[in-house]
Design goal:
With 514 residues, this protein is α/β, with parallel strands linked by helices. The chain has 17 helices and 15 strands. Strands 9-8-10-11-7-12-15 form a seven-stranded mixed β-sheet, sandwiched between helices. A hairpin with a 2-residue loop joins strand 4 and strand 5. The two termini are 62 Å apart.
Length: 514
């Protein structure tokens, strides 16, 4: 489509040409007027020397020159304006991140409420392209302020929905016009040192942000969808103080068992639980505990996919299938590195499981995660992978299964009478003399009644009786019954104790376990 300036220039040039042609034709017609061909040259000379002809020709040339000069000037101004816009867009993309308009009061940890965020997002989107840096910074800053763990940007035909995950629950917090999504995506890609031209394929990057004297490690994932990139931003507070095994929610008895396992010279410890149950935090806390209590003389090597957090004093390796660095191949190389403690991000296949179990029998402490529905389920999971029952029974020294559960807001918790349905689901007698607690909602918990999450744990130590049953290939139900008789701490018992202590409410426990 032509601009108004281009149309004006074209009209001026066209008018000049038409003027010269018509004027020349009229004068020549009057001048020629039936003259014989032999006198044509004389008449042409007379036409060109005619004063009116000269005026028309010179005027037309002047018009054409003026049109060309005007067009050149306008082209120059247009290109300069375009260069200026591009420079501004580039500056918007590479501008260092700052957390926009995020006031913080140390006495009020949750000063910003979810209900305030949509208005702030709408206000920033009205600024268009110029507001992209502040919009991106605000999305991250507000998520940090309300203690969200993830930001989801989900495109559709007309709008992109912004969702924050807070205490494990996704909440819609605003919308962004699709016309701005490409700019938001480019801004995030530049901040994460990703190539902005390689859109249409999955990409992952990271950003480091400092806010309120705290350092945050931000992970960004781009996934192409029908209407554009779906973007997920994960927020991690950096600092080794985040990985303290004392803060996970273990009771004294459970903590003593787990720490004793971590101080063993050899054996395999498995952590299990669904996605989002806090396994990564637990495994990094275990690494920190080993470092603190076994000293710097311990050689700890990890193989992870991806490396979630960097821990000083630990040799961390990133899986890279493109270079044939898988969990299995990485483990084989790690065993040649004289390790004391080996940490495996996840056991997914027979080869990795076999190396882990064998390494646990040959003088190494192996810590790994595996997907199973319970602590007892880990046994059958490994056997399904092709590991011999005697090897499973001999290698494993402990299994921890865990879940994350929302904890009552300590500021507004009050006694309640729980529903009979929740009590029945958990097998709790209605006449049990327990003061059940639940948060009623206040300004410190955004009127949700919950503030933060805490772990509930199932801890299994393979006794000789359990090992014998395992080699006999008894059913999972029988193994679970034997494990309970042998003193296994179950998710149910650990969660019920936290209900009795007022840390969580019974309805939330039923939601997580049932």
């Amino acid at each position: 489509m032509k601009s108004a300036g281009q149309s004006d220039r074209n009209d001026l040039v066209t008018f000049s040409v038409i003027t010269v042609v018509l004027g020349t034709a009229l004068i020549f017609a009057f001048t020629y007027n039936g003259i014989a061909p032999d006198t044509l040259l004389f008449r042409v000379h007379s036409f060109l020397s005619h004063p009116i002809s000269l005026i028309l020709i010179i005027g037309g040339l002047i018009f054409m020159i003026l049109g060309a000069v005007t067009e050149a000037l306008r082209d120059f101004r247009s290109k300069e304006a375009m260069r200026q816009r591009l420079r501004q867009q580039q500056e918007n993309l590479i501008k260092p991140i700052r957390l926009y308009d995020m006031t913080f009061d140390e006495n009020v940890t949750n000063a910003l409420g979810l209900n305030e965020i949509p208005g702030k997002i709408a206000q920033l989107t009205r600024r268009g392209d110029q507001g992209i840096p502040d919009l991106v910074d605000a999305l991250i800053g507000m998520a940090i302020q309300i203690r969200a763990s993830d930001i989801h940007i989900e495109p559709s035909a007309d709008i992109a929905v912004i969702r924050y995950r807070q205490d494990g629950i996704l909440n819609d917090v605003g919308q962004i016009p699709m016309s701005l999504i490409s700019r938001v995506s480019s801004r995030l890609r530049v901040l994460a040192n990703l190539t902005i031209y390689e859109k249409g394929k999955p990409q992952d990057g990271r950003i480091d942000v400092k806010w309120n004297k705290n350092q945050y490690d931000i992970r960004i994932s781009f996934l192409p969808t029908l209407h554009g990139d779906k973007i997920v931003i994960r927020l991690f507070e950096s600092g080794e103080h985040q990985f303290n095994i004392l803060n996970l929610g273990f009771y004294d008895e459970s903590l003593a068992i787990v720490t004793e396992l971590l101080l063993r010279p050899q054996g395999t410890i498995f952590l299990t639980g669904p996605t989002g149950s806090g396994k990564t935090t637990t495994i990094y806390s275990a690494i920190r505990f080993v470092l603190q209590h076994r000293g710097e003389t311990t050689n700890i090597v990890t193989i992870e996919d991806p490396i979630e957090r960097e821990i000083s004093g630990v040799n961390q390796t990133q899986v890279n299938p493109k270079r044939d660095l898988t969990f299995a191949s990485g483990l084989r190389s790690i065993l040649r590195q004289d390790p004391d403690v080996i940490v495996v991000g996840e056991v997914r296949d027979h080869e990795t499981a076999e190396i882990c179990t064998q390494a646990g029998l040959t003088g190494h402490l192996v810590i790994s995660t595996i997907h199973a529905d319970s602590a007892v389920g880990v046994f059958n999971r490994l056997i399904d992978m092709g590991i011999e029952p005697f090897l499973v029974a001999s290698s494993i020294c402990g299994i921890v299964s865990q879940r994350l559960i929302k904890r009552n807001c300590p500021n507004c918790s009050e006694p309640i009478v729980p529903s009979l349905r929740a009590l029945k689901a958990l097998g709790i007698r209605p006449d049990l003399h327990v003061q059940f607690m639940k948060g009623k909602g206040c300004d410190q918990c955004d009127f949700k009644g919950f503030r933060g999450r805490i772990g509930i744990f199932e801890i299994l130590l393979p006794t000789q009786r359990l090992k014998d049953a395992l080699q006999k290939k008894v059913s999972t139900g029988e193994l679970h019954q034997i494990a309970r008789e042998e003193g296994m701490i179950t998710l149910h018992s650990d969660g019920l104790q936290k209900v009795k202590d007022g840390l969580v409410n019974v309805e939330e426990l039923a939601r997580v376990l049932i």
